[in-house]
Amino acid sequence: MKRLFIIGGTMGVGKSTVCQELKTMLPNSVFLDGDWCWDSSPFQVTDETKAMVIRNICAVLNNFLACSAYENVIFCWVMHEQSIIDDIVSRLDTAGCRVVTVSLICSEQELVSRLRKDVAAGTRASDVIGRSLQRLPLYRKLNTMKVDTSGLSATEVAREIAAL
Fold this sequence. Notes:
Shape: globular
Number of helices: 6
Mean pLDDT: 96
InterPro entries: P-loop_NTPase
Largest sheet: 5 strands, parallel
Order of helices and strands: EHEHEHEHHEH
Strand order of the largest sheet: 2-3-1-4-5
Organism: Collinsella ihumii
Number of strands: 5
Protein name: AAA family ATPase
Strand content: 15-25%
Radius of gyration: 15 Å
CATH superfamily: P-loop containing nucleotide triphosphate hydrolases
Low-confidence stretches: none
Number of domains: 1
Oligomer: single chain
CATH architecture: 3-Layer(aba) Sandwich
């Protein structure tokens, strides 16, 4: 049976890194980072662009799910509200597919440490720290399996998810 992994978490929790590990760990896997469906300059958040990114994500995921070459479809995005997850899943053809929804969480200290490294490296703007901390508690309320990444390597987290 095909598996669809939907992995959410706040910025800096390790979604993309963990999913890249998971992709190499599981057989016949493909990975979509939701950010790739909305990589624009300038980055604009409007009703129109929010609707567009959901359509883009669902089109790619449905293509992956329909492709017999893939047993494991891995998707990650921020998804801090249950309605976002539900909307995406409702648009997918998941017949014959096991859907595994996961929220990556970590301690506030770990999150700040990771994000400070990214800011210092120039890969994120400094305002991400406050925004990410604000979203962190929202993931505990979602109807997802929680995986705490605090003190774990991406490989360790990916192994935990692969076992679900």
